[in-house]
Design brief:
512 residues; Rossmann fold; 3 domains; 16 helices
């Protein structure tokens, strides 16, 4: 692989772009090319293959979209084969695919090129209609692309240019086999580009198999974290993170922020909690329908919601101007993901803030991040005594009491696991909901726990024998034979005799 010489161009005109593209860039407000654009566009205009290594937010989309538009417009095709594609861009997520398609629309506004985007989560028929006459540029996610290919609704035998964008992310998401299947259907004579934020061994192997004598462009790999992002750590226990986030948003009057959580459930819950605090928020992740994801992004761009709560799946699909803050509500498991997250701010030369909450269990993740970026991050709070850390209870397990009197679990039955103070009603720190088991009467009858392990004395009814909680009107629990109405065994036998011999009982009462 060869290395391009250092580029000295200071404007887009010096890169060899056509007048129509220069006019579109001016209308978009672009003035000077970013480093990846300055070094990638000239060799791509020459038809070379390219391996581009650059973090998110450096302008990679324009780096490959502008040469593609110029190449296709210079060689127009009047009659296309049905379902054929001239330029294919494969991206890992729906959001990124949709935004790449929007970029082609913006940059190619002066040219009569056709373009479309296909991804999962929505109906196939509109996508099939968009490509059935043949198309110039197709942006696709791997899964939906393979589905349409298997149905004969997309053919790749006439592709002239192929792009794999965010290749490392596609491999992380398990798309390596899908990518290889797609590449196998491409014609041998083509121009190929592979862009990635990192360069692990799998990417190097993939690149060597699909690129021919490529130009290698590597930007800012020595220092992967964005230089214009002010980064800091806030040491806070998990139980105090929500309060710390709301206080951060209110105190700094944040108008546009992306908050990253580790799980989809955590994103939904946090967005709801922020709404309860009076902060407009929307969640975006893989379990959301495509219409919900599009609506959340549109509301975020329009400013109707201040905070977009996202998982890492959407980390590279959010390209919104004016994001001033990125908050890592949960530190990522992979340090490289931290770089991708904070790349949502300080885009295109702007500055931004990255705030990361770190509880004691996340300190190893913090050390891995600092090792990757090569610097110690400034912190707030006491790392040894994190803010909001719940008090530890060293008194041991609470004694189990019998049925008569006292709170707790009936004798001889397993105790329900109490929800920790740090995690609400859920058990593990991972954020996954844990079902709190409640004992059920062996005979299928009713039973109950007075406080469910909370220790607050409130009764929790289980009105059915299947173990599911009934939220309806409270009922008195059924009692076993030896404890009806709190009577003794003798009283219970007397009651039984009264029912069996009512006349004798009446005479006995009259004598009494």
């Amino acid at each position: 692989m060869s290395q391009t010489p250092s580029q000295t161009q200071t404007d887009f005109a010096s890169l060899g772009l056509a007048d129509g593209l220069l006019a579109a860039l001016r209308e978009e407000g672009y003035q000077t090319p970013t480093p990846i654009q300055a070094r990638a566009i000239p060799p791509l205009l020459e038809g070379r293959d390219l391996l581009g290594i650059a973090r998110t937010g450096t302008g990679k989309t324009a780096a490959f979209a502008l040469p593609i538009i110029q190449h296709l417009s210079a060689r127009p095709i009047e009659k296309r084969a049905q379902f054929s594609v001239r330029a294919l861009v494969v991206a890992p997520t729906r959001e990124l695919a949709a935004q790449i398609d929007e970029s082609f629309k913006a940059y190619g506004r002066k040219y009569p090129l056709t373009h479309a985007v296909v991804f999962g989560g929505v109906g196939k028929n509109p996508q099939i209609q968009a490509v059935w006459r043949g198309i110039d540029v197709l942006v696709a996610t791997p899964g939906r692309l393979l589905d349409l290919m298997s149905e004969g609704k997309i053919r790749l035998d006439r592709v002239e240019i192929a792009v794999l964008d965010e290749a490392d992310r596609m491999l992380d998401m398990g798309f390596v086999r899908d990518v290889r299947k797609i590449v196998a259907k491409l014609p041998a004579e083509r121009q190929t580009m592979l862009f990635s934020a990192t360069m692990p061994g799998d990417i190097a192997e993939l690149a060597s198999g699909i690129l021919r004598d490529p130009v290698r462009v590597s930007i800012d790999t020595e220092r992967p974290a964005a230089e214009k992002v002010h980064q800091r750590i806030v040491h806070v226990a998990r139980s105090g993170k929500r309060e710390a986030l709301s206080r951060l948003i209110f105190d700094h009057e944040i108008e546009r922020a992306v908050v990253f959580t580790r799980t989809k459930h955590g994103a939904n819950r946090l967005a709801k909690q922020l709404g309860e605090d009076g902060i407009g928020a929307a969640a975006i992740h893989a379990n959301k329908s495509q219409s919900a994801r599009i609506r959340a992004l549109a509301d975020f761009k329009a400013g109707s919601v201040k905070v977009l709560v996202a998982t890492d799946l959407a980390a590279r699909g959010i390209d919104v101007d004016g994001i001033t803050h990125v908050v890592n509500f949960d530190l990522p498991n992979e340090p490289e993901t931290y770089v991708h997250r904070i790349g949502r701010t300080a885009r295109a030369g702007a500055s931004g803030q990255a705030v990361s909450f770190c509880d004691p269990d996340e300190k190893p993740l913090l050390r891995a991040i600092e090792k990757l970026i090569g610097e110690r991050l400034p912190f707030e709070g006491d790392p040894n005594l994190p803010l909001g850390e719940p008090e530890k209870d060293d008194r041991g397990p609470r004694p189990v009491r019998g049925r008569q009197g006292g709170r707790g679990v009936p004798a001889g039955r397993p105790a329900a696991r109490p929800a920790s103070a740090a995690n609400g009603r859920f058990g593990e720190r991972s954020g996954a909901p844990q079902r709190v088991e409640r004992p059920v009467a062996a005979g299928g009858g009713r039973d109950f726990l007075r406080d469910g392990g909370r220790g607050d004395g409130r009764r929790r009814d289980d009105n059915r024998g299947d173990g599911f909680r009934n939220e309806g009107s409270p009922r008195l629990p059924a009692r076993s034979e030896g404890e009806r109405s709190g009577r003794s065994a003798q009283g219970s036998r007397s009651g039984e005799a009264s029912r069996r011999f009512p006349r004798a009982a009446s005479r006995a009462n009259s004598r009494g």
